[in-house]
Amino acid sequence: MDEAKREKMGGYSWKIEEYHRGIKQFCGVECCHARKSQSQRAHILFSLRAFLRFEAERLGKGMSWFESKRSIFRGAICEYIKYPIYSLSKAPTAYVLPYIQLHEFERLLFIDVKIMDDILKPCHDYSKLQELKNIRNLFHTPEEIDDGFGTAPSKRIIKLFKSYQKVTNGYQIAERIGIDVIRKECPHFNEWMVKLGRLVIYGQSRS
Question: Which of 60, 112, 157, 188 is the most exposed place for a label (fewest CB within 10 A)?
Answer without folding.
Answer: 60
